[in-house]
């Protein structure tokens, strides 16, 4: 059973449709994994043409004397592996300029290699050289140590429940990893999160989304988030340099602190067991790249690395785990991460623009390169080709692989790991992808009670009118029933602590407990052992379940579930 009855893919449906109708149909195929694959295969080694919603020319608002051309921009979809490889290496025929709208002319992805010549600086080559050396400051053992710490930090919130979103967990682990290695503080996490999420969405919009949907807010929102990150990055680089020259004055004469040379809010590596790594990347940035790049250039590079890394990690982890979950539990091992990535490229499409006529593709035509799964080489699936390096080959392969391994291995080690099924159809829920590109959600579940037995219950119930009168009645009920409540709690081995609290000017009654075990079993126990007490309480509550509670235990469970609130940011600490 399926939620939607989709017709079988049939390329003949494109016949007798106008350009916009054809584009809508292709987009419908594109957003379905099976139909997208069938559509790409149907093109064979030919070129697919998409009637794009993107602007026909770069400047959407030229002078009034030059009316902007309207209509559909023709976009070439290149699927032939040989042609894709050619587009990745032939910088005389293809340009990366479609990326420029996201990060400007200094954005590494948008810069084309410059031809050698006197007085000519290859800024793309300079950025690649700097970034490769800079990210290579840490060896694999050091990166593995940081990856394990990042995975643990992300699990505190992202794996707090028995059901979790793998895409969100991978994103948080990648953000922690990036923040630790670059030397950002805890308070900088929201900035990193916003810049990574909005920047990656804008990246996907420039590659695929803008050809099918119209949302002119995506790129400006990404630019604003990346701008705020650039401002903070600049401030931190300056503060690291200032503190290296003039450390903070010790609180007591002669007594130094680990934080004396660390910016305010940044936890010193000595407190995290990372002293052996040396210095964070923001501290070394001026020495590593200052001879060639300005402070603004360095900030732009940091933002570009963040955007390119976090979203790709998020998607790669989801696709790898989905593949492994198809196997028997005893066979769910990571193995060769590069081969698995090549089988499921986290970047399935790349943009290019023709600089001259290429076959049947006119000059100045935007192209989408479809990176097909391949096992013919050991290269990185982020744009490597079998023979020779691509002009924009992956920079972060060695930098990211320890994190991918750490996340996937941690997820596979979760007790009772299983996929989640649709509550209506029973189908296994697959990763959700934006425009057939990045994975935005992948629900999974595990036996959380086997990892941490204690859980919070925060049942917040609205008091019904007349509020003052019913609040007084509730106080009287709780006070008079206190011995009975104590007896019930002592008779349950599941409850650790419990109390009631009035909130929001006595308009809400909240029951707090910390308990062991399964939610449903825990609540059913109280329906059976203290149903009459809850009858008295629910008489004063808006949205109460059917009563008496003892006769409607399952409705009682669902009512408590409805009123239950998660802890702030889903954070809950317990030693067991």
Shape: globular
Can you summarize the main beta sheet? 5 strands, mixed
Number of beta strands: 13
Calculate the mean pLDDT score and round it: 85
Ranges with pLDDT <50 over ≥5 residues? 379-383
Distance between the termini: 41 Å
Query: Percent of residues in beta strands?
Result: 5-15%
- Taking all Cα atoms into account, the compactness measure Rg is 28 Å
User: What oligomeric assembly is this protein in?
Assistant: single chain
Give the strand order of the largest sheet, numbering strands 1, 2, ... along the chain: 1-2-6-5-3
Helical segment tally? 18
How much helix is in the residues?
Answer: 40-55%
Structural class determined from secondary elements? alpha+beta
Describe this structure in words.
The relative contact order is 0.11. With 576 residues, this protein is of the alpha+beta class. The strands form four sheets. Strands 1-2-6-5-3 form a five-stranded mixed beta sheet. A three-stranded antiparallel beta sheet has the order 4-10-7. It has a three-stranded antiparallel beta sheet with strand order 11-13-12. It is globular.
Question: Mind sketching the topology for me?
Answer:
Layout: H1 19-30, H2 33-42, E1 47-52, E2 73-78, H3 81-89, E3 94-95, H4 100-103, H5 123-135, H6 140-158, E4 163-165, H7 166-182, H8 189-207, H9 218-245, H10 281-289, H11 295-325, H12 337-343, E5 349-354, E6 366-370, H13 397-412, E7 418-419, E8 432-434, E9 438-441, E10 443-445, E11 454-462, H14 467-480, H15 482-490, E12 495-503, E13 508-516, H16 519-529, H17 531-538, H18 553-563
Parallel strand pairs: 2-6
Antiparallel strand pairs: 1-2, 3-5, 4-10, 5-6, 7-10, 8-9, 11-13, 12-13
Helix pairs in contact: 1-2, 5-10, 6-7, 6-13, 7-8, 7-11, 8-9, 8-11, 9-10, 9-11, 11-13, 14-15, 16-18
């Amino acid at each position: 059973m399926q939620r939607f009855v989709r017709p079988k893919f049939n390329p003949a449906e494109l016949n007798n449709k106008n350009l916009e109708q054809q584009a809508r149909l292709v987009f419908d195929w594109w957003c379905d994994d099976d139909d997208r694959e069938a559509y790409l295969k149907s093109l064979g080694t030919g070129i697919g043409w998409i009637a794009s919603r993107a602007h026909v020319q770069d400047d959407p608002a030229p002078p009034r004397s030059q009316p902007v051309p309207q209509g559909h921009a023709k976009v070439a979809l290149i699927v032939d592996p040989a042609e894709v490889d050619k587009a990745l290496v032939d910088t005389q025929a293809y340009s990366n300029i479609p990326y420029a709208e996201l990060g400007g002319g200094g954005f590494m992805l948008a810069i084309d290699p410059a031809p050698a010549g006197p007085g000519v600086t290859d800024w793309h080559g300079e950025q690649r050289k700097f970034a490769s050396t800079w990210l290579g400051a840490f060896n694999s053992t050091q990166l593995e140590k940081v990856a394990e710490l990042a995975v643990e930090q992300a699990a505190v919130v992202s794996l707090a429940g028995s059901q979790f979103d793998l895409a969100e967990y991978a994103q948080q682990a990648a953000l922690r990893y990036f923040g630790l290695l670059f030397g950002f503080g805890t308070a900088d996490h929201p900035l990193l999160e916003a810049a990574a999420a909005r920047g990656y969405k804008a990246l996907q919009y420039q590659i695929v989304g803008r050809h099918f949907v119209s949302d002119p807010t995506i790129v400006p929102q990404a630019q604003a988030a990346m701008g705020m990150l650039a401002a903070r990055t600049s401030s931190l680089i300056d503060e690291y340099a200032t503190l290296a020259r003039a450390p903070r004055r010790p609180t007591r004469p002669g007594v130094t602190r680990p934080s004396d040379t660390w910016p305010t809010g940044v936890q010193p590596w000595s407190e995290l067991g990372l002293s052996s790594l040396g210095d964070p990347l923001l501290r070394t940035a001026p020495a590593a790249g200052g001879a060639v790049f300005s402070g603004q250039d360095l900030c732009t590079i940091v933002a570009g690395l963040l955007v390119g890394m976090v979203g790709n990690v998020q998607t790669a982890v989801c696709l790898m785990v989905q593949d492994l979950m198809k196997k028997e539990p005893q066979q769910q091992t990571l193995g060769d991460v590069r081969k698995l990535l090549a089988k499921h490229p986290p970047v399935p499409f790349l943009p290019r623009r023709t600089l001259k006529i290429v076959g049947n593709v006119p000059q100045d035509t935007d192209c989408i390169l479809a990176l097909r799964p391949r096992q013919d080489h050991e290269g990185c699936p982020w744009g490597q080709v079998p023979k020779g390096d691509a002009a924009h080959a992956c920079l972060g392969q060695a930098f990211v692989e320890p994190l991918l391994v750490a996340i996937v291995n941690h997820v596979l080690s979760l007790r009772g790991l299983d996929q989640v099924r649709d509550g209506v159809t029973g189908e296994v829920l697959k990763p959700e992808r934006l425009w057939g590109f990045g994975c935005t959600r992948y629900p999974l579940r595990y036996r959380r009670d086997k990892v941490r037995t204690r859980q919070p219950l925060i049942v917040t119930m609205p008091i019904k009118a007349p509020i003052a009168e019913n609040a007084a009645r509730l106080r009287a009920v709780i006070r008079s029933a206190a011995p009975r409540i104590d007896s019930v709690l002592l008779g349950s081995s599941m409850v650790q602590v419990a109390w009631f609290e009035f909130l929001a000017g006595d308009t809400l009654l909240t029951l707090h407990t910390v308990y062991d075990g399964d939610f449903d079993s825990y609540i059913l126990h109280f329906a059976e052992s203290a149903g009459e007490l809850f009858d008295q309480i629910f008489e004063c509550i808006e949205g109460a379940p059917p009563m008496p509670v003892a006769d409607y235990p399952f409705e009682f469970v669902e009512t408590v579930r409805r009123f239950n609130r998660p802890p702030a940011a889903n954070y809950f600490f317990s030693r067991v």
